[in-house]
Amino acid sequence: METSKRILSLLLQRGVLIAVFLLLWWYAAGRLPSFVLPGPERVFYAFNGLVHSATFLHDLGATMGRVFSGFVLATLIGTPLGLALGSSRALARFFEPILAVLNTVSSAIWAIFAIIWFGISDATTIFVVFMTAMPLILTNVWQGAQTVERQFIDLARSFRMSRWQILVKISLPSILPYFFSGARLAFGFGWRVSLVAETLGASDGIGYRLRQAADLVQSDQVFAWTLLLVALMLLLEAGVLKPLERWLFRWKTPSR
């Protein structure tokens, strides 16, 4: 009963927030030219046109495929590197300047390099997503590996536990919250920078359609694509990432 009330209250709050946002949007759109700020009704019709267009599913699938490919690649490379740096101070000191450089270079610069190296192709966007997400995952896993209690590892070794058992039963529970925090951040950044890469170096995808609409001054379509991106991110956050986080860390929830 208490959970139902909490969910109902949250839905009511979200509904009020959306209503206020739409009201302010409608008010501002009525006082500005439509090519500067199209109204909600016009954007809705543009969104409906996008959804029913022949290329909508292809563009959506192309963008999501590139984002997930770059993110998975970043996870597969960043996680073991973070574990290696966390387990060796010598390696950490040696590679720390390189990691600082990777975190400093902006995604726009990586996009320019990617266009030079890969041209107009899927590899351009995948590379930009990878170079944005990988340092975030690596850094968080590295920090998580440093929090593992050394005395627990020594105790496990005294019981002759294998390295795999130590990793799964001792290291992983300590590292997982850091990894998940970095992965969520990396996925969000990767999703956004993919649009930058597609704007500069792609012939399809959401970023390409956004550039096309902007070039033709089709502001309603720009807003429609933007609202679609926001809706997708909220859906992934509420429908996938948060439930997965609750399931992974259910052992932290105190029993009543």
Question: How are the SSEs placed, and which strands pair?
Answer:
Layout: H1 2-29, H2 40-51, H3 56-87, H4 89-104, H5 107-118, H6 122-146, H7 150-158, H8 163-201, H9 206-215, H10 219-248
Helix pairs in contact: 2-10, 3-4, 3-6, 3-8, 5-6, 5-8, 6-8, 7-8, 8-9, 9-10
Can you offer a commentary on this structure?
It holds the Pfam family BPD_transp_1. Its main location: membrane. It comes from Halotalea alkalilenta. Belongs to the binding-protein-dependent transport system permease family. The chain is mainly alpha-helical and 256 residues long. It has a single domain, classed as MetI-like fold, CATH 1.10.3720. The protein is 83% helix and 0% strand. It has helices spanning 2-29, 40-51, 56-87, 89-104, 107-118, 122-146, 150-158, 163-201, 206-215, 219-248. Helix 9 (206-215) runs antiparallel to helix 10 (219-248). The longest helix is centred in the last third of the chain and has 39 residues, at 163-201. 29% of the residues are buried. The model has no long low-confidence stretch (mean pLDDT 83).
Q: From the alpha carbons, calculate the radius of gyration and give it in angstroms.
A: 23 Å
Q: So, the CATH homologous superfamily?
A: MetI-like
Distance between the termini: 16 Å
Q: Please give the domain count.
A: 1
Number of helices: 10
The rough form would be described as globular
In CATH, what is the class?
Answer: Mainly Alpha
SS class: mainly alpha
Beta-strand portion reads: under 5%
**What is the overall pLDDT average?**
83
